[in-house]
């Protein structure tokens, strides 16, 4: 499911951003299920609440999740166990601590995340739609909060964060691209290339979306006002 392209500071669907932020936008897809062990061992639980005020409260999911057709329910049910096992695998292999979920159609495996001590930021966005500017900022602020928590820790003690939607091409990739713009001195075209290098199947024109353009304008304004500090992208140093 992932192919690692090592850089000093990023792991997009394959790399770590900043500390070890995982911009892996494909947790919802059933592709690559052959890498999932048939029976993953249970991990010790910390009973952390998966919802801690970031994004939308999953308890409101019944009123937010679109109605599914019979075929959609079948596909959805088949993928559920795979996704649970994927969470366990990611925690075991990538020190997963946090999840950004862009799926409007799925509020996340809340019980499994509580069992594993994971924290989720749910940003319900319908399939084939671009996250709103507000939703993008919600995701970026959550990622930044997680990065701040890992700041100064040894690499071996840093956690990772997983961004996903259904296919990992549009919704989650949009938030990943915008986080790159927020954290690094990149222009939208450059951030798009970073994503494509790490995950070739992301949509090729994300950087042109009006929401991304508006986000970048706001980032530049904050930088000019010294409200944020962006750093050089490693490849440009």
TrEMBL record:
UniProt protein name: Tyrosine specific protein phosphatases domain-containing protein
InterPro entries given in the database record: Prot-tyrosine_phosphatase-like, Tyr_Pase_AS, Tyr_Pase_dom
Stretches for region Disordered: 1-35
Record-annotated Tyrosine specific protein phosphatases domain positions: 140-199
Bias (Polar residues): 1-15
Origin species: Entomortierella chlamydospora
